[in-house]
Amino acid sequence: MKEVQHPPHAASLLESMRSIGYTLDSAVADLIDNSISAHAKEIYIEFRPNDTPYIAVIDDGKGMSHEALQNAMRHGSKNPLLERSGEDMGRYGLGLKTASISQCRRMTVISKQDANISAYCWDLDVVIEKGAWVMLQLEASEYQALPHFNQLSLQKTGTIVLWQNLDKLLIGETDPESALGMKMLTAREHLSLVFHRFLVKEGSKPKISIALNGSLIVPFDPFLTHHKATQPLDEEIFSVEGKKVVVKPFILPHISKLSNNDTQLVGGTEGVRSQQGFYIYRNRRLIIWGTWFRLARKDELSKLARVRVDIPNALDHLWTLDIKKSAAHPPEIVRLNLKRTVDRIRAVSGRTITFKGRKVSDSEVATGWNEVIDRSGVRFDINRKHPLISEFSKSLDKEGRMQLNLILGVIESSFPADALYNRMASDIRSDFANDSSVESINGMIADLLSNMPLDSPARKQLLMSLHLIEPFNLYPALTKKIIEEYES
Predict the structure, then answer these.
(1) Does CATH number 2.60.40.790 belong to domain 10-216?
(2) Most buried in the list 127, 192, 226, 299, measured by CB within 10 Å?
(3) Within a 10 A sphere around the Cβ of 199, how many other Cβ atoms?
(4) InterPro entries, alphabetically (predicted)?
(5) Which of 118, 117, 101 is nearest to 30 (CA)?
(6) Segment 5-37, tens digit of pLDDT
(7) DSSP assignments along 194-259, one per residue
């Protein structure tokens, strides 16, 4: 048997690799991974749509020597099977190159270390012309003329990744400036989520700053951990092949307790319900989110649940992590542990939805509706013992009470359960028991009390218990005002 050297055709392979599936967001995130692995504290992303458009990422990391940069520019620069340091963000040795050429035809890397500067460039048009894996080494006069070199020259160490000839990024766009502007907005949102744990100090880990066109990216915490109504549940830790996997569930506040801005943050245009699920972090970097991995369905009872899962890079082979670090699937041993977490948090999330707005325990509140569960399922009956209904019924004769009971029965039988479920499952805020409806009930109270003597025990009992009657228990200030008005 004879061995035959059969290397891939350079131009064809590189052009094919451009369609590996990177978006602008994931491509820029891959470059930031490299900066973080280089221990950068400040990272600058520059979008320039005018004249000759380009994108540059500049960091103050440890930089690379001539030999290290030359190797980093090699496709498959590191064996993915080799063990990496615990904080290394890479895996396949392809991210820098594949992410870059997915967006541009010319990518240049300039790196400074120990006052020595090196620069190399992959230009697809040169590779096509030469028909070989030809990489360009830039002379000092060439890299000194590139954008943002002056910034790098003032730093002790650091690296610039420059994308030029943005053909893929701007394909089909007649207005490059406007197109890059819109893409810049979506990239900002993506990076604020994916790297939110790096943008704040976390334990002994220092804070990293990322700026886009001079404006700092603000971290977006998908768990709203600083909201007073967020419920953090107990952390769980289990071992896989001797490595720790840490699971931390959170139950978001009910939507009625969120400001419009908070609601937009936790759900955006896709809605709170669609963003529920696991949030998988590899070395604190978010790689996949908003999925239950088929361990549960996305439904109303779990829509407030979000689970942070921290995995080390040593388990990449089990999670089938892809090159873009944007997809992963948990192995069976992890799925078994996550299933227990799902069962636990769905119960808590369901209670948050069902019992939102309670000011006192159910045993003390005179509710407007009673939940009834029998063999046929669940239904809701109007509470005939509700003080307002009870007192009104007493004021009627026998025929009137029969008519009242008939009307209440019609309301119960036409309860719009399906429509209510669909609306509550969406991001539309509920508007039950608002101020206007309470004010309308004030008229009923006035009519009831007008027929009661001032010293009537029933009148006194009604006023004394008004703060325990729905919907007044949800409006303590208004209820107190009503009581004081009628007591006087």
Answers:
(1) no
(2) 127
(3) 19
(4) HATPase_C_sf (IPR036890)
(5) 101
(6) 878 888 888 888 888 778 899 999 999 999 999
(7) HTTTTSS-BTTBPP-EEEETTEEPPP--TT-TTSTT-EEPPPEEEEETTEEEEEEEEEPPPGGGS-
Reported pTM: 0.71
Q: What is the DSSP letter of 46?
A: E
CB burial class (10 A; 0-12, 13-18, 19+) of residue 428?
Answer: exposed
Residue 390 C-alpha from the chain's centroid: 48
How far apart are the C-alpha atoms of 226 and 398, rounded to whole Å? 57
Q: Is the pLDDT reported for residue 261 higher than 80?
A: no
State what percent of residues in the chain have pLDDT above 70: 80
Question: Facing residues of 42 across strands?
Answer: 209
Q: Are 445 and 389 in contact (CB under 8 A)?
A: no
Q: Would you tell me the crossing angle of helices 457-464 and 387-394 to the nearest 10 degrees?
A: 160
Q: Where are the alpha helices (H) located in 4-136, listed in sequence order?
A: 10-17, 24-37, 66-72, 95-101, 124-130
pLDDT tens digit sequence for 81-98: 445 454 555 444 577 888
Query: pLDDT averaged over the chain?
Result: 81
Distance of alpha carbon 35 from alpha carbon 157, whole angstroms? 12
Cis peptide before 476 (omega within 30 of 0): no
**C-beta neighbour count of 431 within 10 angstroms:** 9
Residue of 119, 101, 104 lying closest to 63 (CA atoms): 119
Q: Write down the domain spans for the chain.
A: 10-216, 231-354, 369-487
Residue at token pair 């994108």:
55
Query: Residue 290 has what pLDDT?
Result: 87
Residue of higher predicted confidence among 315 and 108 = 108
Among the listed ranges 155-164, 286-295, 316-325, 392-401, which one has the minimum average pLDDT value?
A: 316-325
CATH 3.30.420 assigned to domain 231-354? The reply is no
Three-state SS for 440? helix
